[in-house]
Design a protein that fits this description.
homodimer, DNA-binding, 6 helices, globular
DNA sequence: TATTGTTATACTCTATAACTATA
DNA sequence: TATAGTTATAGAGTATAACAATA
């Protein structure tokens, strides 16, 4: 009789856990950076997504920033109050709201771009630029993979 | 005059965002699975970690499961009430508490192991077993990389 | 003095459902 | 009827500080 096989994978080889741990180790310096403007991870993601894709509706932001719509509603309200974003009704479909990054929002992004670039350089230097690219490729492919039944 | 370079990377090539998006796409079916036992992601991680490493102290659990100690305190209290874990003072250092998975905890893990295995098979099938291994290798290396100054 | 873990507090996100307005 | 977004609500995690017990 041999031993039974382990019930589940080692947690290092569990993809959800490995993704979380890896993310935590990368996020630490970034959270420190963002804390200096009183902005959190979620708001930063929203800002990045909308700056990248241009004026867009909320459902699309929620999807791209990995946030639920009710969470996003609140986040956008405070970000609008802080002057980082503006919202306007869609002219063609009045159920929709179009969100745009304001000048102040762009300024906040710029304010962090230098330091963010430094963090990326450090990452590339210590982890290796080729490995970083490989990892990003794999993550994009994973994201595109359909796991539904 | 050429255009200015983009301020920041495309979000698909931002490591924190890519890690989060990839994780979300993998977690969806797992969350559905766990919901059937009324357990959440965090409790599942704690269970997996302690089952894997054996009886261990809370600071180590917090680190391995990516949770803060105050969050873990509450989680462990409810898991102990649910009978999934037991806690006992460390005999050699009475500041410490040693956490152990109970029979009921092991049973809960077993109850999900078949379905969890199916999800993993599907992942390997659709994403490719070699790519999965490559990705896990890179994530482990990333986790081991030191990004402090 | 430093470490382990708990408690307290304020804030935020999660998850779901019910709801409004519009299509 | 379906979709976009808001509101409500309960539960849970985040983050920090202060604290007690122990080393």
């Amino acid at each position: 009789m041999t031993d039974k096989p382990p019930i589940l994978r080692r947690t290092e080889r569990s993809l959800p856990i490995a993704l979380l741990r890896a993310r935590e180790s990368v996020m630490e310096p970034i959270r420190d950076m963002l804390a200096t403007s009183g902005i959190n991870e979620q708001k930063w993601r929203v800002l990045r997504v909308v700056q990248e894709q241009g004026p867009m509706e909320q459902t699309a932001i929620a999807q791209a920033a990995c946030l639920l719509l009710p969470s996003l509603t609140r986040i956008l309200r405070t970000m609008e109050e802080e002057g980082l974003l503006s919202r306007a009704p869609d002219l063609h479909d009045r159920r929709k709201t179009i969100v745009t990054v304001t000048e102040a929002g762009l300024a906040l992004i710029s304010a962090h771009s230098a330091q963010s670039g430094q963090l990326l350089s450090r990452l590339e230097q210590r982890f290796g630029p080729e490995r970083l690219n490989q990892l990003l490729d794999l993550l994009e492919e994973l994201r595109r993979t359909d796991f539904s039944e």
